[in-house]
Every structure is written in C-alpha cells, then in structure tokens.
Amino acid sequence: MVTKLRFSSLKLPIGGRSPRWIGLLVLGVALLTGVGAFAQTANFGSATLAPGFSADAGTLRGRTGGSSSLPGIVANRDKDGNLCLGFGSSTPDHLITLQGNFSALTLQVNSNRAVSTLVVQGPGNVVRCASGNNRAPNATLSGTDWAGGTYRVWVGSNVSGEQFNYTLTIRE
C-alpha cells in the first residue's frame, strides 16, 4: 500500500523550508499507521511450521501479563463471529509462520487452571479467537483453511494485568 501525503494548503515559512517538526510528524504518523515495512517481533518466540511438523516444533511457552484490550488491538469479533476477549500485551506473544496451506489446525493454551484467551491475526488480517471459562479454562481454537503466511498470536487473560505461565500447543 502506498500512501501519499499532500501538504498543498500548508504555508511554509520564508525560504520554502518546512520546519523540522513536520518531518517528525510525518514519520510518527507513518509509524502509527503501519506505513512502511518494519520487522515483526514477538514477546516470547516464534515457530515456522510445514505440513507434517513435529510436536516439539508446535510447542511454545510464554507468560501472560498486560492490560491492553486484545479486541481493541485486533478486532471485537473473528471471521466466524466469535467474540475476541481478554487482556495482554500490545505486542504479539508469538509469531507463527505456516509454510504452505493447512486444511486444519488446533491451537490450545495450557494455563494451569487460569482462564486464558487466544487471539490470532493472520494473512489478510483474518482474525480467529477463542476463550476459556471457569469450567474449561484453557482456550482452544480449532479451525480449517489456514493459509500459508505469518500469524500474530496473543495469549491473554480475562483479567487485566493477570500473569500466569502457559504452554501453547499447535497440532494438525
């Protein structure tokens, strides 16, 4: 996506040079809106998975803890109309790169009895969400038609700022 910024109505100071703050403002807007290509990072780790991947390759670990509303970062509802819930870090916890298409995948959080949430944003900004509850606290997301590409994954809590260790398992 190419974004064109126009300043035709902006009055420049004598000499035709714009103040330095305009350049900083443009840079700030570009960073906030995602213009440009910047390296993606994750809080805890990444996985690159090809069809037939091993159980070890599909196991990631992390720790929840954040007060950012995950629906506010990604979406209120996923592609199937499910609510996206929870609190976590504004940065994804994991990056998962799928080398090829997968007909079905299951992502499950083992949170040792803490109620967990799961928010996944994939290629084309397709969002998938799941959440646990008091009787079944581990968020489990099973879905079909996973396109190859990079997925940003947040593991959250239903309580702002709550921290707990977890294991995220991904299975075909």
Automatic annotation (TrEMBL):
Name the domain of life this protein comes from.
Answer: Bacteria
Q: What is this protein called?
A: Peptidase S1
Q: Which organism is it from?
A: Thermoleptolyngbya sichuanensis A183
